[in-house]
Amino acid sequence: MTDTALPSRLLLAEARVPRYTSYPTAAQFGPLEEATYRRWLTEQVSPGDSLSLYVHVPFCRDLCWYCACHTRPTRSAARIEAYLGALLAEAGQLAEALPAHGGIAHLHLGGGTPSILGPEGLRALVGLLRERFGLRPGAELAIELAPRLFDAPLAGTLGELGFTRASLGVQDIDLEIQRRIGRPQPVEQVAEAARMLRAAGIAGVNIDLMYGLPGQTEDHVAASARFAAGLGADRLAVFGYAHLPSARPHQRAIDAALLPGAAARMAQAERAERELVAAGYVALGLDHFARPEDPLAIAAAEGRLRRNFQGYTTDAAPVLLGLGASAIGSLPGGFAQNLVDERRYAEAVAAGHLPVAHGLAVTVEDRLRGNLIERLMCDFALDLDLDRPEAAAVIRDALPRLVELEGEGLVRRGPGRLEVTPLGRRFVRQVAACFDVHAGAAAARYSVAV
Fold first, then answer.
1. What is the C-alpha to C-alpha distance for residues 150 and 310, in angstroms, rounded to an integer?
2. CA dihedral sign, ordered 365, 98, 100, 322
């Protein structure tokens, strides 16, 4: 990237914008009454609707310094057991609050480190969810895993419970980079975790990598990408590190002086993409890659790729329900987030409440803007429906900023069509922000665009 537009693109890369796993984003959430959430469940879930369930486990054995998730370290078995009890109780209460529905199509366990529940805890949780919600034929069961905390008994339990996909958090394979982010994890542990998963019958193995870490170079990123491809990962995510120490105080352990600048971050992201595409992967959306035969790649080719709080997905369920402290759900009428503090969460559940605390009712305009943003993030293109007055108004609002990005060579406008150029794909969050009326309101809470 040596052309004369580079300085302005660096400014765009350094601007803080949402990752757009929802619209409006969680930064716009306010207080939400339990009665409102219960009404949404009653009125907006239909008998034929499939469900997507996200279960959040907010614990890790040790806290990685780069982490931006709602999690905390613990080695207390009693604390984990108490949290599991609250999860099971919330699941039962939520099942009772729901009208008839079509069962679970997608179940995702995240965190934190959800495997911290242990084999027996996972059996109790998945068993209750099967019993109270039901699983649709072909349902996807996915879990996030830390390879250094994975063993054969846990792999066997996941296979026994019918898990179909697991994501291994790798980030970078270099031991010095790992030391700088507080996550020592030899590559042998990662390779053995992948082997155990496949031996247990779990066909889908995802690997998460990162760029922009302290001291990281293009060569580090390339080596990690080649390693992941060599393991035969079905899907990969290559996320940009979000350094937000004011919001995540533990990130202060990272030496900010070693963090790559905007130009280096862009070069690292582009190097990872080149390595993975050369290894046979299809680049999807902003930061995902999949084998051509993977359902995610097929969905992208057919225009069915979706984006939600778990990132890029094939999940088309109209109802996403969040279980656990800080978990976020989405219904046609709006978003609902549980209490973030696990003790307050457990107290609310013990008192018989659905533990929602934050959320947002969405308007018709919100849904329209959200759909435009999702298609941009997934397809890098929009068919502009100028015949609908409300759509035309949204597009008019976005036009001045789109014209600026067109001047940068990042988008191309045609009759009834907007396309993100190959150069602009790295900046798609900036393009999506053109349709976001809230984008500047909480910029300090967002990560840099690239």
1. 22
2. positive
Hey, what amino acid is at 201? G
The number of angstroms, rounded, from the C-alpha of 56 to the middle of its chain's C-alpha atoms is 12
Cβ burial, residue 422 (10 Å; 0-12/13-18/19+): exposed
Contact 356, 336 (CB under 8 A): yes
Q: Distance between CA 335 and CA 176 in Å, rounded?
A: 40
Please choose, from the candidates 313, 340, 320, the residue with its C-alpha nearest in 3D space to the C-alpha of residue 69: 340
Which tens digits make up the pLDDT trace of 333-372? 999 999 999 999 999 999 999 999 999 999 999 999 999 9
- Roughly how many angstroms between the first and final C-alpha of the chain, as a whole number? 14
Q: pLDDT tens digit string along 5-63?
A: 556 778 888 888 899 999 999 999 999 999 999 999 999 999 999 999 999 999 999 99
Count the alpha carbons within 13 Å of 417 in the hemisphere toward its beta carbon. Answer: 9
The answer to whether 226 and 218 have CB atoms below 8 angstroms apart is no
Q: Is 256 helix (H, G, I), strand (E, B) or coil?
A: helix
How would DSSP label each residue in 11-72?
HHHHSB----SSSS-GGG-EE--HHHHHHHHHHH--TT--EEEEEEE-EESS--TT--SS-E
Torsion-angle region of 352 (φ positive above 0: left; ψ -120 to 50: alpha; else: beta) = left
Q: Is 142 in contact with 166 (CB distance < 8 Å)? A: yes
Best CA proximity match to 173, nearest among 157, 191, 156, 154:
191
